[in-house]
Amino acid sequence: MFAWDTLCLDVDSSDNITDEALHRFLSRHGSQLWGLVLSGMTHITDQLWQSVLQVLNNAKILIMGTQERLGVNIHVDQLMDGIANYCPNLERLELRWDPENLRFSDKSQKAIDILRVKCLKLKCLVLSDGRYYEIVKANFERADRTTVVRTSTNCRVSNYYLLSNYRDLVFN
């Protein structure tokens, strides 16, 4: 998807793309991307995201994960910490991983605090319904940012928000 001044990549459910090819592409062009959708692929885990987050410093929209059950766990605390440190312009984030695959620890509150404090432009954080969603929602509510955290049953994020004529596409 291209807009006049925006570069976005949406490879949702593109199982034929390898981790290595994505890593090479994102390492080379990631700093130019404002929107990135790497979802619906069971082979894309937090390890790839951790390795490319530092080049996604201009990202405004990130969509990651799959609703399918995985054979590995997603360490969401480290992922949130990386997003907070490398993506200060982030406006919309969606984690589509199944709640059973998300692993978090007692340090989750700290990682969520860092995300909330460093990503001040964050308007929408979408998570699958579950324990982690409840923890994140409560954290944002304590900071009087009640409208940011949403469940994936009610909200979906896409790169459409970056279109220059997006406001013209929205109907009342």
Features:
alpha/beta; 172 residues; two-stranded parallel sheet; Leucine-rich repeat, LRR (right-handed beta-alpha superhelix); 33% helix; 8 strands; single chain; six-stranded parallel sheet; LRR_dom_sf; 6 helices; (diamondback moth) hypothetical protein
What is the CATH architecture term? Answer: Alpha-Beta Horseshoe
- Got a strand count? 8
Distance between the termini: 25 Å
Assess the beta-strand content as a share of residues.
Answer: 15-25%
The average pLDDT value, as a whole number, equals 89
What's the SSE pattern?
EHEHEEHEEHEHEH
Task: Give the overall shape.
Answer: globular
Q: What is the CATH first-level class name?
A: Alpha Beta
Structural class: alpha/beta
Radius of gyration: 15 Å
Uncertain spans: none
Total count of helical runs of at least 4 residues:
6
CATH fold group: Leucine-rich repeat, LRR (right-handed beta-alpha superhelix)
**Strand order in the largest sheet:** 1-2-3-5-7-8
- Fraction of residues in helix: 25-40%
For the biggest sheet, the summary is:
6 strands, parallel
Count of individual domains: 1
Describe, in plain words, how this protein is organized in 3D:
One of its GO terms (biological process) is positive regulation of protein ubiquitination. This is (diamondback moth) hypothetical protein. InterPro entries: LRR_dom_sf. It is a single chain. This protein has 172 residues and is α/β, with parallel strands linked by helices. It has one domain (8-169): Leucine-rich repeat, LRR (right-handed beta-alpha superhelix) (Alpha-Beta Horseshoe). The protein is built from six helices and eight strands; from the N terminus they run E-H-E-H-E-E-H-E-E-H-E-H-E-H. The protein has a six-stranded parallel beta sheet with strand order 1-2-3-5-7-8, covered by helices on one side. Strands 4-6 form a two-stranded parallel sheet. Helix 4 (108-118) packs across helix 5 (131-142). The mean pLDDT is 89.
